[in-house]
Amino acid sequence: MTQTVQTISTSAIPTLNRQFRFQWEPAQNGYDLLYPEGMVQLNPSAGEILALVDGKQSVEDIIVKLRSKFPEAGDISADILEFLEEAYEQHWITL
Amino acid sequence: MSSTGSPCSAQPTLSSGLAGEQQHAAGKSHGQPLWLLAELTYRCPLQCPYCANPLDFSNHSQELSTEQWLDVFRQGRQMGAVQLGFSGGEPLVRQDLLELIGGASEMGYYTNLITSGVGLNEHKMAEFRKAGLDHIQVSFQASDESVNNMLAGSKKAFEQKLRMAREVKAQGYPMVLNFVTHRHNIDQIDRIIELCVELEADYVELATCQYYGWAFENIEQLLPTRAQLERAERITNEYREKLAAQNHPIKLIFVTPDYYEERPKGCMNGWGQVFLTVAPDGTALPCHSARMLPLEFPNVRDMSLQQIWNDSPGFNHFRGEEWMKEPCRSCDEREKDFGGCHCQAYMLTGDAHNADPVCSKSPHHDKILAARQKAEQVIDDPSQFLYRNERNSRIIARG
Lengths: 95, 399
Hints:
The complex is a heterodimer. Chain A is α+β, with helices and mostly antiparallel strands.
């Protein structure tokens, strides 16, 4: 991927690319992103973010929800944006 | 995805870039069988001379029943398996494929059908979709009809594959196109890539032949020269850049033949760490080639998948490092490649505990150098191919 990472606007509404499947795996105690013959085992924070990507909530909504869910984590908005930018680059989500 | 666990491709990828912690190598510790490859049958309408099925496949024709397969899937799922590949042979020859797809899908698997496309039609594809099939991989032998059909040992294969690839996309499936490359088709890599773009593939595996099973028998007529390989890799990289500049989502995966490497691949992400193959007769294997090794492998008819994965001597044999000899034992790269491929070590040195001779530190590396040398001198002659079919298998099995 050679394009420069774009900065995502907080009003953007991310949607999971339907070529991917996102699901909770009890045996791994975590979320997986599944695609043809491959998988990404998401870390807990990446999993929490993608779990809120539903094609309805904006980036802003997602940030607000996660901040209230994890108040002890401090300001996590930059981390969330960074992850969403990477997810966009990987074609996991569309905007 | 880097490569595949199917006979027709490389080995499946597992990316844990964003977190996943793989348990590796220490002692006999091991991960979960995240990837279950179900080789439903060794029957196949094609006769590709690089097939990864065992040479004596005709000796193992007693296939598991529908119920036995579903039970294997259930057990695998409980142990954490999430990717399920339906492979073979040609999985479409199983009359119960629809039922197996439906069952696996209900259990929560991501289901992959790895097929030649021969025996597929629009109606079946739609039924599979309804039953929950997630993805279809179609294997091609070449980008042009005559080479494809020559390699497949079938006159109508190419046209059928094209039709099926178009239909896969028309029905909304993600699609992987798999081209096993070798000296007879690798020079057409540009046409192969263009065909894949035209067919709207999501992923393309340009999988250089891996020399096991039938491919090892046919290595002389398959192994490309270094110049062929370097040209193909360069052209692939040019296409990658061009396509990326268009923000084209297609992913080109180029699998280098390890015969041109100086270090071995970390085969299957480590023996018995992530992958579990079940052969048509129920034999459980840490990789689809392992059956050739002089080890005893358990059968799902005799014990639970849990026992097989955790406790069987076959699965524990190459876990950890105790089995290693020099140069692996003291090598600072042993945690990266786990000594490489045991099947390759066995085929080329007679002892699966030796370092994979692909490694330049191996005292048997000269075998690889000789094969490279030979590739420079071979005259292309497809009539020398030993085709993968029942008759040839029986001759080989008889010895």
